[in-house]
Write a structure and sequence with these properties.
The chain is built from 8 helices and no strands. The chain is an all-alpha fold. The chain folds into 2 domains: about 45 residues, Homeodomain-like (Arc Repressor Mutant, subunit A); about 120 residues, Tetracycline Repressor, domain 2 (Orthogonal Bundle), CATH 1.10.357.
Length: about 200
Amino acid sequence: MAKKKAASPSRKPRADATRNRERILEVAKEAFTRDGANASLDSIARDAGIGSGTLYRHFPTRDALIEAVYRSQVEELAESEQHLASTMPPLQALRAWMLLFIDHVAGKLLIIPAMNTVPGGWPRLVEGSRSLIHTAFIRAIERAIASGELRPETNPNDFVRALIGIFHTTALPGWEASARRLVDILITGSRPTGT
């Protein structure tokens, strides 16, 4: 009798497993935004069109699911920088990505109550994702500098610090509109003279 081959540990997940995982994350984000950390995992599974066992195979605990929801949002934001860079001129892509970053912050505010139930709370989750966002941000700014659309002496970290500063203003009324204006002020102030 022939022996069965052992499954390779580096095997890619099946397409349906990947779809299930993505659907769970999408539904969970809506549920945690709406109901906080007390969102029913059984309801999330049902709304995602899967059984509870499938949900728990992907995410064995509530904390694992909350963390995965946040991590997927950060990964999506970071990947969008490359997509924008491939479809727009560098400065236009930088501006579009900065506006997406503001949308990300606004969306994160809605899920923070759920994130705070995870050990270490939202600061730990944000700290763990900081390098992905920082790398995408720096790459977008450096492209705009290399294209000549921003002055060569532009310091990418000035942009990063200015926009990261919006985290400290989100409790103030109108913070989002102010942050969007800040994007245009930063870009206009960093353009070469005469443009």
